[in-house]
Amino acid sequence: MYSAPMTEPSDLLTTAEMAKFAALGYLVFESVVPAAINQAALEMFAQTGGADHERAKPRSGTPLDELYPDPSPVGAMLRLPRVQGILTSLLGPDPVFDHDWVHLREGGDLVDQLLHQDCIVDATLAFDVQMFWFPHDVAPGEGGTGLVPGSHLRIVNEADIGRYQNLRGQRDVSGPAGTVAVFHQGLWHRGRAHHGSNRRWMYKLRLNPTVPQVRRWNLDDFEDVHNGPEDHSFATFSNESAAAMFRRPAPWHEHGAGRLETVNRAKLWRYLTGDDDFDADWYLSRTERRARIDRSLG
Amino acid sequence: MTNRQQVLILYLATSALDSPVVGWSHYDGASDAPTPPVEDRPKPPYPTGLHALRDGWRLIQMSPLMPPAPGAERQVGYLKHEFVFERLVDVD
After folding, report:
1. Mean pLDDT of chain B
2. Could you give the CA distance from residue B16 to residue A292 in angstroms, rounded to a whole number?
3. How far is CA A92 from CA A70, A88, A132, A205, A246, in A?
4. Nearest to residue A122, comparing CAs of A180, A62, A206, A182?
5. Given an 8 Å threshold on Cβ–Cβ distance, is A260 in contact with B22?
6. Distance CA A117, CA A114 (A)
């Protein structure tokens, strides 16, 4: 039987969290899933182990609300109000199933996966969300997914970035049982070495939006975070605004590309907020003004 | 006695060889061991590309400076400032 989730405004993401997602391409939430659901999932995952293709799966395109009817530990996780709130904030209503997979990494497996992006040169503003659920404690060094903050807007093709072994600022997901991470589809990531002795399980789900992902989160702090186009670090600016997050380069961003990252984050924020005048550090404002002059010349 | 090639790839913050290292990779033709594992929060092997030269690495390639593709001027993609170094080491 299907249990409809009851999502409260507090289950949704805040504007500050959404701006952080736009800047870095991911968010991590610790202990979102309760112990009973985690334990049930571990027992279910163990039935098929690393052969996840043997597990019964939904069809691609299935609405999120119809995935894994009760009783199902995956369905129970997806119907948690907090999980629903996170997914609704990022994807809007009625996202659909793309695919999922149970990832198993044995203790002592020290081979790092090549860095990659789950894309085929994707260039749309609309984005998929990949959710990573860790149903048991994952200590640092025990195979938590590796990620590169601020890489989600790079237009590359899948494992063509495999040559990049180390980038300043890279990190691994770790945390207590029930930790959930959400990635923009473009975020560079990889399976990581597991220096522990236990079996590391992770459930990964990809969802596609079906509507524009505009202002679907809790907007109580919107006016505190969203800024006007004049927020410009060489003129007047705020240290608390969305622009402040977007102008802060990741440690691995090259100096010149860092400015382009600011521009591309600002474009993503325009999409998410529906504010076509939004800007960070005046880059879009000045260039769009000049373009209008060019066009006026005929 | 024969020798083998070690390759160090540094990704720098600008096109200048003496600008900071933002990324790096290492391949060792003298070792049968797997590629060195990725570190969680690693520290660059050198502060800049110039420091690698001073430590004996030979620069064999650097990325050309290419104009952006028309229509994709603000697109970001692969790391632009890649410097490839080699070192020959003796093996038995």
Report:
1. 92
2. 35
3. 23, 5, 19, 16, 23
4. A206
5. no
6. 10
Q: Please say whether the beta carbons of A86 and A180 come within 8 A.
A: yes
CA distance A112 to A194: 9
The phi and psi torsions of B87 (rounded to 5 degrees) equal -145, 135
* Residues of B within an 8 Å Cβ radius of A: 9, 11-14, 19, 21-26, 34-42, 44, 74-81
> Is residue B75's pLDDT more than 80?
yes
Which site among A148, A168, A264, A283 would you substitute to test the B interface, given the most B Cβ atoms closer than 10 Å to its Cβ? A168
Q: Which helix (H) or strand (E) holds A293?
A: helix A283-296
pLDDT band at A121 (very low <50, low <70, confident <90, very high): confident
- Smallest CA-to-CA distance from B13 within A71, A257, A27 is with A257
What is the DSSP pairing of strand A179-184 with strand B21-28?
Answer: unpaired
Say how far apart CA B87 and CA A169 lie, in whole Å: 27
Which residues in chain B have Cβ-Cβ distances shorter than 8 Å to A263? 74
On the question of pLDDT at A7 being above 90, the answer is no
Rounded CA separation A281/A295 (Å)? 24
B91 φ, ψ (degrees, to nearest 5)? -130, 160
A1: pLDDT confidence band, cut at 50, 70 and 90? Answer: very low
Report yes or no: A220 and A9 within 8 Å, Cβ to Cβ: yes
Contact A28, A173 (CB under 8 A): yes
DSSP letter at B18 equals T
Quick check: B39 pLDDT over 70?
A: no
ipTM for the whole complex = 0.94
d(CA A136, CA A143) in angstroms, rounded, equals 12
Choose between A132 and A119: higher pLDDT.
Answer: A132
Quickly state the pLDDT bin for B5 (edges 50, 70, 90). Answer: very high
Write out the two tokens for A119: 């894309």
Spatial distance between the Cα atoms of A189 and A199, rounded to a whole number of angstroms = 20
* Dihedral, A109, A115, A118, A123 alpha carbons, nearest 10: 170
A245 three-state secondary structure: helix
Coil, strand or helix at A218? strand
CA–CA separation, A267 and B62 (whole Å): 32
